[in-house]
Amino acid sequence: MPSPVPSYRISVAPMMDWTDRHFRFFIRLLSKNTLLYTEMVTTGAILRGKDTHRYLDFSEEEHPISLQLGGDSPQALGECAKIGEDYGYDEINLNVGCPSDRVQSGSFGACLMKEPDLVAEMVSVCKSKVKIPVTVKHRIGVNGKESYEDLYHFVSKIKSAGVDHIIVHARIAILEGLSPKENRTIPPLRYEDVYRLKKDFPGLPITINGGIKTHLEVKDHLTKLDGVMIGRAAYDNPFLFHEVDGLYYGSKEKSPSREEVLGELIPYIRSVLKKEGKVHHILRHILGLYYGENGAREFRRFLTDRMHKNGADESIVEDYLKR
Question: Do the record's keywords include Chloroplast (predicted)?
Fold first, then answer.
């Protein structure tokens, strides 16, 4: 009997302020198999925060889902990994790639690439606390530590610590002088470094991330690597995912249409509004649904003109479908 396709074959990158539970539910309507990630949650927010449940809660429909943790204390990360496992997450992911000033000031994120021994300890402690996979998302380097040899050394350390899977953003992070947005575009992509890693660590599952926007690119990367993570394109053009299950997971189910996705979203909106929140918290995530199609601008305008008004609810989507 053939082994199941790994969940990490296609994934959506964790993105602060974007990959919240509403966006994840929306993507799940398009693909049942894509691996989803939370926004990064810091160990402090979980261990010392007053609203831990709000940070960690998710719906059953979101599986498979990974909890991304940010922190620099192996012990604190281990505690949070265990809490995440108890919540029902399918994977624990450690953030060693975010270049924001806020993250650097806490001595975690991409700057941890300068401390491979510490990251290895983080992996080891988390592995000792949970039975689910422990993974690391990192860059190919940081300024001052940007050679392939530096990358090889870093990966060899975390592999020895037992990391189950790595996700590599194929750019270095420049820790001074560039904003997080600039760090996603200005440092050049070095896909060949990630391909070389796979040759040097053939038994380690490796996913590539950075600048990937089309299925043609995805298919090319999958000839050399185990997985592809899509970031901004998932937000700008979410309908990209309606073919994922058939193309990469062997599903025979019919791909959903945009209108079917909107129809399935209506009861979700209704259920959310019964508890808390505003409809724009959900609808802001779907503005790119008609990306590249005739009528895309009209769709965005239809939603944005209505979703911030007092009393706005799921009828916005119902009215759009009746047009």
Answer: no
